[in-house]
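Memo to structure team: turn this sequence into structure tokens by end of day. - J.P.
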Amino acid sequence: MKARPVGLAVVVLVAAAVLSWVAVGNAAVGTPDVTILLNNMVVPGSGLIGGEVAFTVPYPQRATIQPQVTSQPSGLTYRMYFYPVGVCPAMHIKVGPHCYPTDGFETGYEFTEQVLRDNGASWKARAAVSGPAGPYQLSGRITVSFVPLATVASITVSSPKQGDAVFSDAFVNIAWTAKGQMARMVKITVVPEMEPQAAQVIIASTPNDGSHTWRPGQSVIGQAHLEIETLDGNVKGRSGVFTVQRR
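Reply from structure team:
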């Protein structure tokens, strides 16, 4: 894998309702770092913030999302949505022959060889915020940086998959693959899509061996995703969105 070339820096400046985009560097090489600056931005509540940022992913890489935002109220959740250009409708991503709504990612996303094969190298990104009832006042930045995937330790959740439906009273096999050097123990959390602040820890510490059995129960009904994170917090994986339903 080649070392990461110097790429494009894209800066989004937000002041109240005013939005400006400043691009610096050579757009023909590398993958851009994306920084969204939030200067006393006031938004009515949960939803997308800012506009689209276009960037190129010429080879498999991991995008790391780093929010550094102070807010009123505090405790808001920030996500980045990544989707290809000219392949699917906006805010959708291609998996095999079909297009699906893209997930919002809090910590990072892997542009794997398969993802790039299905979707190409041209991408767009948008940021979003979620939390209790608004309005929100935001100040700070959200930065997305890229490193070659071969150098990154990662956790890839393979079960449950995007679009799966499971019963609340049945046992569910959680499966993941850990790649690279990382801690030997992980924490597994289930996060409701409609109320991410109500996330529940499935197990606080379990061996990072790629498998765990879980019965959702009645407290998790509806759409959700899983997060598997090493106990030192250095590596985190996220499942696709699945549905928990009563039998």
